[in-house]
Amino acid sequence: MPVTGIASLARPDSAVLTVALIMAEQLQQLILNTLNESGSIQDTRTLVIPGSSHQAASNDAQITILGALNSLDSREMIKYETHETLSHVLTPEGAQIALEGSHEARVWAALPAKGKGKPVTPAELKKIVGDETAKVGQGRAFKNGWIAKEGDGLVKNKPSIEDATQQDMREVDSSGTLKAGEKALAELRKRKLIVQRKGQWFTVHKGPNFSTSIAKPETDLSVEMMTSGKWKTATFKKYNFEAEGIPTNGGALHPLLKVREEMRNIFLEMGFAEMPTSSFVESGFWCFDALFVPQQHPARDVQDTFFLSDPAVSLPPPKDYYDRVSKVHEHGGYGSMGYRAPWNDTESRKLLLRTHTTASSAKMLYKLAARCRGETIEGAEFDWGGTSGRVERKEGLQDDGFRPAKLFSIDRVFRNETMDATHLAEFHQVEGVVADRGLTLADLIGFMRVFFKKMGIENLRFKPAYNPYTEPSLEIFAFHPLLDRWVEVGNSGMFRPEMLAPMGFPKDVHVHGWGISLERPTMIRYGINNIRTLVGHKVPIENVEKAPAVRF
Ligand SMILES: N[C@@H](Cc1ccccc1)C(=O)O
After folding, report:
1. Which CATH class is domain 92-187?
2. What is the ipTM metric for this complex?
3. Is the beta carbon of 305 within 6 A of some atom in ligand 1?
4. In this predicted model, what pLDDT tens digit does every residue of 285-310 receive, in sequence order?
5. Does the C-beta of 470 come closer than 6 Å to ligand 1?
6. pTM above 0.90, yes or no
7. SS3 breakdown of the chain: % helix, strand, coil, rounded to 5?
8. What residues does each domain of the chain span?
9. Whose CA is nearest to atom 3 of ligand 1?
10. How far is the CA of 108 from the centre of ligand 1 (A)?
11. Is 295 a pocket residue for ligand 1 (Cβ < 6 Å)?
12. N or C: which end of the chain has fewer CB within 10 A?
């Protein structure tokens, strides 16, 4: 029984394997001998393989034969033509059926004959033939009338059966098709037992240098050949200028990097400047306090945040600003009554892995406001991006040092979360802030619509939400046509005066900001439903190499 493909691995007696094992030279010799006897080979699928009475009809055998033909052809010992065919091969399940019988036959075989031996209970059957076979096979075996119930158990209902599925599998395996025809093949394809495969076969004729003895051609011209004069009579192997080179291994960009680059381009095109976000480690002050996150907030718990143990304490933040921040927390100010809870310096100085890139935004906004405070500080000279695009400007306004800014960043954040298919302890945030005089919530919503439209998402919904540092706050939902539901894509809001005023911004300067996940749109773009396929040690490298570029 010749078995191709997968099945051949399990059947070392198969002809294909025999073909593969014949030394390439033996196969070449066989082709030459056959040509010598018959003048030509009309169809290489009829070649008789030595040591086996089977035909070399399978695709794998033809591939091996092609290698031999090419080798003989390069020496012009033969000529050949290629013919294409469509044939079928077994899937792993089909191959198993070819070997062990169909699920229903395996169920039948596991049962005692009626009246002989103890009936097998369904639970026992599962143990004998496995869950899958027991599940699929029982139903079909009943339907075929092969098995019957006896008490709580099952017994054979027929002394012998004909396993048509197994026979079909064996027929496809040996011939690549079924005599029963296309309808039967289509049925097996639907059951995922066989798949179509393109194949080829060849017609072979004698070439100008035909001979039944294979002289091994020389591949190198050596010093020895030149001095002895042997080069004059030697036959040299022809160069194969058509041979394809070995594919070179190049680097490949990870899908996250591709999506990141596309988003980056959208921001740059919209006149945004990129914030420096290289500090993964921040202090409680910049990550939370500067953002008016109360010191008792649950996000500041070890359950949610990774704290550093060495060093555990940050350098002190700028003194005056620190005092204004602690004051607004404890006692309020700028129209706020604050949290009225005692200020804790230790909490503020704790070092942690930033839980959001809003820590970087806060630092940047503090630098942006330096001119309003009349200070020159390091980092304040920065390309702050184009203006928000608002046209009404108050003319004749006294210069209070403010200049508008549009900033974005895409970088990593860390959260002490339980990991599952969609959550990791670290991920990327796409963050941004826009600062200008008189910005309103409408500017934020308008920005979101423009930004997401550039990513090909036009259906957006906004839902009121809560952040300690923004009021109002909006969660952004996008309609996902594949999932057929609304998915949360971001969080945003207008920064509170309790955050902006201590930095020194004039009252009429408003700032809106947002945070969007990078992983979620990437998973949607590439149809990935487990985050571990995207990040971590289980990422299949081929996926990364083959992932297409993204264009929003
Ligand atoms: N920091 C918020 C996102 C956000 C940024 C800026 C303003 C409002 C919300 C988050 O991590 O979800």
Report:
1. mainly alpha
2. 0.98
3. no
4. 999 999 999 999 988 988 899 999 99
5. yes
6. no
7. 40, 20, 40
8. 22-88+198-226, 92-187, 258-374+402-546
9. 515
10. 62
11. no
12. N
